[in-house]
Description:
This protein is an alpha+beta fold. The chain has helices at about 15-25, 40-45, 65-75, 90-105, 105-110, 130-150, 160-175, 185-195, 195-205, 215; strands at about 1-5, 30-35, 55-60, 60-65. It is about 50% helix and about 5% strand.
Amino acid sequence: xxxxxxxxxxxxxxxxxxxxxxxxxxxxxxxxxxxxxxxxxxxxxxxxxxxxxxxxxxxxxxxxxxxxxxxxxxxxxxxxxxxxxxxxxxxxxxxxxxxxxxxxxxxxxxxxxxxxxxxxxxxxxxxxxxxxxxxxxxxxxxxxxxxxxxxxxxxxxxxxxxxxxxxxxxxxxxxxxxxxxxxxxxxxxxxxxxxxxxxxxxxxxxxxxxxxxxxxxxxxxxxxxxxxx
Length: 229
């Protein structure tokens, strides 16, 4: 059976992406959970990942340690797994915005860290200019996709796809901080929050005992002495 190495459900958005993809694809796997920023973190994650980060997918001793690589590996191995849109232009669009999510939105990630247990309403004017611009860009992506594909379903490209997996944790961050979005973008957020697998992940996050103070207090990681590995 596949094994998926994840970190704290409450805080690790990249763990959520890989987990959500496998769960929504109906792929059986065993979880290996390693809490972030503990004394054992560096030693334990080194057993699975050469870069010291999560998630990691393990298939009979073979490790894949990047979220998009995990998704593509599973997609190729399991017929019927969650896929890209069928239409070639939509597929290219979905891949473009997913790559944009994977490599960008750094200010948004820094100023609005995933914290599923928290509810911390924010005035966006208290955020940095770059973060506000990135929030607007996310809203634009979701709104354009919903307007173009509303007739074929409730997801970004109508039916649930890899693009939805990539943006689901952002929707949950917007819920945590009560970020105002357009009605069209709100439709996507509602779809994410209504997903049974997401509700399962959130329920498990609420049961976790660890607390990472600099995330709870929204202190930028660069201002702490903590590292991921």
